[in-house]
Amino acid sequence: MSRFARHALVCSLVLACSSPAFAEVEYFDSEQGRVTVQTVASDLEHPWALAFLPDDKGMLVTERPGRLRIISGDGQISEPLAGVPEVFARGQGGLLDVRLSPGFGQDRLVYLSYAEAGDDGQAGTTVGRGRLADDLSGLDDFTVIFRQQPKLSTGIHFGSRLVFDDEGHLFIALGENNQRPTAQELDKLQGKLVRIYPDGKVPDDNPFAATQEARPEIWSYGHRNQQGAAINPWSGKLWTHEHGPRGGDEINIPQSGRNYGWPLATHGINYGGQPIPEAEGKTVAGTEPPHHVWERSPGISGMAFYDAQRFPEWQHNLFIGALVDQSLIRLQLDGDRIAGEERLLKQLGARIRDVRVGPDGFLYLLTDSSSGQLLRVGLSAEP
Predict the structure, then answer these.
(1) The domain at 25-379 falls in which architecture?
(2) What pLDDT, in 10s, does the model give residues 242-290?
(3) 303 closest CA partner among 350, 200, 233
(4) Reduced to 3 states, what is the DSSP secondary structure of residue 336?
(5) Which Pfam families is this protein grouped with (predicted)?
(6) pLDDT in tens, 311-369
(7) How far apart (Å, rounded) are the C-alpha atoms in residues 285 and 108?
(8) How far, in Å, CA of 59 to CA of 62, rounded?
(9) How far is CA 140 from CA 84, 89, 135, in A?
């Protein structure tokens, strides 16, 4: 793209706008005070994830059909950015997670996960990175660093959260493409948590790096459809969560080389009411029990630990979006122990897809619909 074309596009970042100012504040009661909700932006088509740009440059937001946009702090919505890869936009597939490089201030790299089609029409999760242009018009030199192999999805269970740890690794939380047995098969990347370096190389100390006929990228296995992942800021451990079938959504703290059970061990049943064919019980020898489980599935997506100073009442809380329950789940933590749970914002009637803590200390939520919203959530200082 020419510099002139980029200048024209960056002008559109300012002019293209569907929400010029925040809507009025809505208030909802909670155990910790009145929760405030403001609509930052609307009319987003199935938004999936967001990431905050530094220096008040706004937020990168993915839309599942394949668009990456920038939303400014006052709700200005950009035109789609250039340089985004073609995606498999079918069923649950499309453009999914977005993360900034830990060294974004120097390298300006943006990481995207997305569903990518194979030659036979089936798809898998792919991760790549590109350099955000100085004028914010697009991603330059986008390069694939990881592909889920083999490609087995016809449109569901891509998983797809991205997390960087403090040791220079990138974790990719994957789904099993609704091919249940593959979550136990180490020669496939379905139903796995993967650990690689940011350039796609595999660390030598991965648990299966030296195991013949196992994928060296694997960190843990036996997962179903992981749509939440975050580093616990107080322990430094990675937490993930995943959808169960009908019942059995769960949180895990994945450890190297461990088997988290699916589909051998599950608290859920098939959507039609029948048992999972491979299931041997809620707990199975040789597999790890979930750190926390919901017998009735809220349909969890997105995960954010609250360690900001703005709302002390939320310190040591974990927030998770709920698609089926249409709520924001607040979990009170005592160390790693989950000491309490509250369901917030059910009055909105919105499927909450992603949850992030903003640099201003507010929570930012994405709602999953054909006219999805970006919401700013806090606590009121007034009773």
Answers:
(1) 6 Propeller (2.120)
(2) 999 999 999 999 999 999 999 999 999 999 999 999 999 999 999 999 9
(3) 233
(4) coil
(5) GSDH
(6) 999 999 999 999 999 999 999 999 999 999 999 999 999 999 999 999 999 999 999 99
(7) 46
(8) 10
(9) 9, 22, 12
**Active-site amino acid positions:** 157
Q: Does residue 220 contact residue 193 with C-beta atoms inside 8 Å?
A: yes
* Single pTM value for the model: 0.94
Ranges of each domain in the chain: 25-379
Residue 95 — φ and ψ, nearest 5°?
A: -80, 125
Angle (CA) 11 104 9, round 5°: 15
Tokens found for residue 31:
């155990």
End-to-end CA distance of the chain: 53
- 243-254 pLDDT per residue, tens: 999 999 999 999
Tokens 């041997």 -> residue: 280
Helix, strand or coil, per DSSP, at residue 131: strand
CA distance 36 to 28: 7
Nearest Cα to Cα of residue 214 among 141, 298, 279, 149 = 149
In terms of Cα–Cα distance, which of 234, 258, 340 is closest to 292? 340
**Contacting residues for 119 by C-beta, under 8 A, at least 6 apart:** none
| Contact between residue 102 and residue 165 where contact means Cβ atoms under 8 Å apart | no
Separation CA 377–CA 318 (nearest Å): 14
Q: What is the pLDDT of residue 21?
A: 53
Residue at 368: amino acid letter? D
Which residue blocks in 31-97 are alpha helix, DSSP H?
none
- 99-126: b or e for each residue (b if 16 or more CB lie within 10 Å)? bbbeebeeebbbbbbbbbbeeeebbbbb
